[in-house]
Amino acid sequence: MASTSTHHFQGTPDNQVQIFDTTLRDGEQSAGASLKPSEKILIARQLALLNVDVMEAGFPASSAGDFDSVQQIAREVGGQDNAPRITGLCRTIERDIDAAWDAVKVAKKARIHTFVATSDIHIAAKFKKTRDEVLTLARDMVAYAKAKTVGHGDADIEFSAEDAGRTDPYYLYKVLEAVIDAGARVVNIPDTVGYTIPDEFGRLIKGIVNNVPNIDQAIISTHCHNDLGLATANSLAGAQNGARQIECTINGIGERAGNAAMEEVVMAMKVRREYLGNLWTQIHTEAFYETSQMVSDLTSMTVQHNKAVVGSNAFAHESGIHQDGFLKGRDTYEIMKPEWIGLNGSKLPLGPRSGRAAVRSRLLQLGVTPNDDGMVAFFEAFKTLADHQKRIEDEDLKKLLVQVGL
Ligand code: KIV
Ligand code: ZN
User: Fold this and answer.
1) Which residues have C-beta within 8 Å of that of residue 39, sequence separation ≥ 6?
2) Which residues line ligand 1 (CB under 6 A)?
3) DSSP bridge pairs for 392
């Protein structure tokens, strides 16, 4: 059963899962979600308050504007004490890597995140190269990136094998071994097209743990897309099998159907901590609701009402049976407290499916304590109104009180 404490769990370092936020990069790649630099810095500050471990601020080589914005975030947010690590994405191309490093190097903790596709579909259709050529490119460009960071504190290199979910695992193992040898300290396993099933993705991560000889020198990361609605489940399966970084976005925004939603991944680890082998994150979950609203407002990407954790219905109990159960004990229908994500209590919306218990409870909140006969009369009037009106607000209740003479 869910713990009812709001206390932040601190587990062992081995079980800590680093949260890599890519709202400002993959999230901003959502169709129609583009952000101005002034909006990106607001989100970056909020992500720092949320206490993410790593923030991917953009793709510096993609435009001068993106370069400036990543650099501004690296300076203003990444320059603070205890700030998240700041990274910028780049292809395995020297000028891309140069741009990424020039943009992030002002951060106290900087990362170059370089990627190349490793699936045969991408290697053949996009690059017209061989597997060996791609492996050599990956290794050489990680070494190139690594050389740039030498002497810059604990700046590090992350390598992503794009479309890893559809890559031959034996080839993937060889690529990962080569890039770790060249200096990568995080190896990211993207399910770029959201194709894998949780058990399959978990086995892919386990295969990497068991077959890449130098894997102890790197953190395995997941980056799951949501094309089949499995991004959160796949990310958790990855962590259960040894991944210790999860890449995700606020509200799950991102290319096509989006990325794993940070609030879902983190709350699953908080609510089901024991089942998930005591995995934990350092996220300040009380900032989730505010962050979700900010990202939704600035990107104009509406959060669906029934969205897990941050949707407007996520803590709303509608039917009479549920409202009655909730009033007898919150645990009946709530596995986490709204306060844990920064909300001030749950909602019991009144409407056609509401029962006597919820209506009575709302009357008590309005300062009215009806006797049994009064309650019978009031509830009858309430039901008649609710037949014509989907939602009954406090103003409606006050009018009904006058109508039945309470
Ligand atoms: O989905 C993906 O493969 C990516 C990589 C560039 C990390 O976003
Ligand atoms: Zn992606």
Assistant:
1) 298
2) 26, 89, 115, 160, 162, 188, 190, 192, 223, 225
3) 350
Residue 68 neighbours by CB distance under 10 Å: 14
Q: What is the pLDDT of residues 291-349, one digit of tens each?
A: 999 999 999 999 999 999 999 999 999 999 999 999 999 999 999 999 999 999 999 99
- To test the pocket of ligand 1, the residue of 225, 226, 253 to mutate (highest count of ligand atoms within 8 Å of its CB) is 225
- Please determine whether the domains at 13-299 and 320-404 fall in the same fold group of CATH: no
Nearest atom in ligand 1 to 25's CA: 8
Give pTM, 2 decimals. 0.95
Distance CA 27, CA 294 (A): 13
Give the ligand at the shortest distance from the Cα of 122: 1
The tokens describing 294, both together, are: 């900010």
Alpha carbons 94 and 111: distance in angstroms, whole number: 15
Q: How many CB atoms lie within 10 A of CB 121?
A: 12
Q: Quote the ligand 2 centre to 3 CA distance (angstroms).
A: 33
320-404 has which fold? Recoverin; domain 1 (1.10.238)
pLDDT tens-digit map of 19-51: 999 999 999 999 999 999 999 999 999 999 999
Domain residue ranges of the chain, discontinuous segments joined by +: 13-299, 320-404
From the CA of 188, the nearest ligand is 1
Return the residue whose CA atom lies nearest to atom 1 of ligand 1: 192
Q: What is the CATH number of domain 13-299?
A: 3.20.20.70
